[in-house]
Amino acid sequence: MKTIKYLVMGVVLAGFSTNAMAQDGTKADIDAVKNIISSKPADMEDAMKPFYKKNKKNAENLTAFARAFYEAKDTANAALYADYALKANKSYAPAYILKGDLRALAEDGGGAAALYDQAIYFDPKNPEGYRKYASVYRKIDPRGAVAKLNDLRAQVPDYPVDAIIGHINYISNNFDEAIAAYDKVPQQKLEKMDIIESAFSAYLTQKYDKGIQMAEFGLQKEPRNSTLNRLAMFCNTEKGNFDKALDFADRLFNKSDSANISYMDYVYYGNALNGLKRHDEAISMFQKALDQQFDNKDKRAGVIQTLANAYKGMEDYPNAIKYYEQYLSEVSKASASDYHSLAQLHVKNSDKLEGAAKTDALKKADGIYESMQSKYADIDDFIAFQRAHVSLFMDPDFKQGLANPHYAKLIELLAAKDEKTESDKKKIVEGCGYFINYYVHITPDNAKAKEYAAILQSVDPDNETAKVVMQLK
To answer: What number of CA atoms fall less than 13 Å from residue 379's CA on the CB side?
Structure first.
């Protein structure tokens, strides 16, 4: 396989063609032209005249000159010498490739693809045109790009086309297709970036076993590869292989080359520690994650939420609440689930308290649910259900009737539904059971008790409690 395979855009592979042509052309002339270009003479045209005259019929050298200009970001002269090359030989494929690279640089994918197609036409067995065509055409039509690579397979049967197809699918975010393509290539023939992209595709599609297998295979060749150690840590953490994840975390942080540690690395390290109940160490990692650079405030907020959950795992509810409130203040758009989680932290905290402190914690939870009513009208039955439960914690013997308005609202909302889920029915049964108890034992009112017994029977006709209540006078 050629040294450079990966073509995000034609620009990325500029050096590939230069090197290939330099080997075949007149090296002295090419080296001299490179020196002229790097020296940036005041009159480039005069400096180049001798070399143009000497090589004006040599399409190969003229294309090499064009490529040197391209490398120096002198696109005007790069285009000029590519045209000179085609004037010398109108069927010289590398010149079309260079012109395609210029169009790709100008973000003209269609124009670049057309020029790469010309290169393929004149040299159908040269992989370069196919690869560059696919690299730019994948933005227009990823499957069309893959079809062009299959044309290369027909022309050069032993060329590892599937690895390129894997890459094209990878950079097109077609990760399942990328994995399938890479799987067609014998692993020993995969290059480093093939392995990384296959492993990363597996991670992104939650195929963690596959990600681990590919990362470990790559690490056999390059044990200090930071990307592969990172992917092995991520995938093992997601799989719950926390001991193995910590081993790869140690390799990433302490035994990898050029490891640019990011906040995600600290988060996964912390998650693995959390999985082993090493909460204090996990919290330290999450704190370090917050010290890193973030390109998005929601990512930072997500780390704060993770830190809150770590304190929750330790049953340190005051700190869990503190960081969850910070998360809600920083995230761009909090969800109903987020507010519910904070309310439940206050409920959990109340379990560790007594007297007024306990009641105060429960009131905070109820206040959160109350504030949710105006924000999330579509889940008002859920909110009523949660407020009823919080009220029961504050009034466990029902004597104050704190849960009454919430169970009443819950029953009203659910009973009005034409189609009731099993969950809806269970909640109606719970609410009616509460009121039957309340009106039989706390504030005796058999008529009211019968009203709720009738509602209970509408969803549970064989309910024995309802039958007994209906017999009361």
So the answer is: 16
